[in-house]
Each structure stands twice: as structure tokens, then as C-alpha cells.
Design goal:
mainly alpha
């Protein structure tokens, strides 16, 4: 079963790769992107789409980064607190007195 899921994952990855390759090969014509102050960027369409995707991905990661760091810091503090509480509980347990 494990090998079957591994094989299915690789088949899916290969299908996605070949679909993207076919998309790139079908969109090789040059386009012009007009930027600010009269600058023009001429490049194949697939590179412009890749650049737009990469910029969106970077913007999403940068927008998510402060919250992610805050959650990591809170998790680290909770872990330290739980460790301190467990150590305190272990030190306060008294063995039974033998009579």
C-alpha cells in the first residue's frame, strides 16, 4: 500500500510537471510589460507569469511572517512553562514515610 501511494504521488508530480512544460512551450511569444516612468520589459509570457507568481508568493510569505514568529515565540514560552511546571510537580512529591 505504501509503494502504491508513493507511485501515485510521483505520477501526479510528473503529470503536473508535463502540464506546466506544455503550457510553457505553448506560450513562448514575447510580450511587453509597461512599467513606471516609461520602462518596458519584454519577455516571454511564461516568464512574466512566473515572475508574477513569485512576487505574489513572496508577498504572502512576508505578510504571514510576523504572525508565524509570534506563534513560535508563544509556543516556546508555553513549552518552557510546561517543563517548569512538570519539574516543580516532581520536586514537590514527597515519598511516603515508613513507620
Amino acid at each position: 500500500m505504501k509503494q502504491l501511494t508513493w507511485l501515485l504521488k510521483w505520477i501526479l508530480r510528473a503529470a503536473i510537471f508535463f502540464a506546466l512544460l506544455a503550457f510553457a512551450l505553448n506560450n513562448q511569444q514575447n510580450i511587453s510589460v509597461h512599467l513606471f516612468f516609461g520602462h518596458v520589459w519584454q519577455s516571454p509570457l511564461v516568464l512574466v507569469l512566473l515572475a508574477a507568481f513569485a512576487l505574489g508568493l513572496a508577498a504572502g510569505v512576508l505578510a504571514m511572517l510576523p504572525r508565524w514568529l509570534k506563534q513560535r515565540r508563544a509556543a516556546r514560552q508555553l513549552r518552557r512553562q510546561a517543563l517548569a511546571d512538570s519539574e516543580l510537580a516532581l520536586t514537590t512529591i514527597q515519598p511516603p514515610h515508613e513507620s
